[in-house]
Amino acid sequence: MRNMNHLITIVLFVLSTSLFAQDSHDEIVAIWKAEETNVEIYKEGNTYLGNPINAEGERNTEIEVLNLKYKEGKWVGKIYSKKRGRLLDVECQVEGDKLHLEVTARLISADLQWSRAK
């Protein structure tokens, strides 16, 4: 019985540690000030989605700006380029209140920085 209690304690510890580790990836979940608008990034399943916010603070779900997955310490996926009218590759990293985005279109890349809305 004593060994069973130890086993249960170890299993609960491992499960709680992995649950807290997953929550740390959610630091990207916020409203971010982009160049022309605010973008709300939220989690849906294992995907992080971004939609513009209108003047009333409501999410416009008809326009998907970002579609990301967390892989190897960063968020990778697609970002909509209004200028080009298509989806481009993007890698994102959060550093404090800044979101760094590296956008790639074929061989050309550009760096963007968004700020967390307060």
Word description of this protein:
Helices cover 19% and strands 50% of the residues. The longest helix has 22 residues, at 2-23. Strands 1-2-3-4-5-6-7-8 form an eight-stranded antiparallel beta barrel. Mean pLDDT is 83; it is low at 4-22. The protein is α+β, with helices and mostly antiparallel strands. The chain has one helix spanning 2-23; strands at 30-33, 38-44, 47-53, 66-71, 74-81, 86-95, 98-105, 108-116. The N and C termini lie far apart (53 Å). A hairpin with a 2-residue loop joins strand 6 and strand 7 (98-105). The relative contact order is 0.14.
Briefly characterize the structure.
The chain has 118 residues and is α+β, with helices and mostly antiparallel strands. The protein has one helix at 2-23; strands at 30-33, 38-44, 47-53, 66-71, 74-81, 86-95, 98-105, 108-116.
As a whole number of angstroms, the C-alpha radius of gyration is 18 Å
- The count of DSSP E runs of length 2 or more, i.e. the number of strands, is 8
Number of helices: 1
Percent strand: over 45%
List the defining traits of the structure above.
118 residues; alpha+beta; 8-stranded antiparallel beta barrel; 1 helix
